[in-house]
Amino acid sequence: MVLVGLGMEAAFLGVMQRCAFLRRDVHKCIELADRAASQKAREVLILQMGEGHRKELSQIECSSICSTAVSSVAAMASCIRSGSWPSTK
Prior knowledge:
The protein has 89 residues and is mostly helical. Helix content is 81%, strand content 0%. The protein is elongated and about 70 Å long.
């Protein structure tokens, strides 16, 4: 009886891994978990940085936003308020 149950479970898992909707959901969950872990690690590293390095990172990020034209008004305003918006000299 146990072998029949194990066989059915193996067949179920074999069929389910081929289902596109299930794979898509699983991959989405994995991606969200990876992004959350990356964001947390980034925050920890930023907290370990000195003030000068944080300001330099902010300038790099703001100039990247500007150069890729993916910026939003809120992101630009934040950069301008923090004084790290790249000068146009």
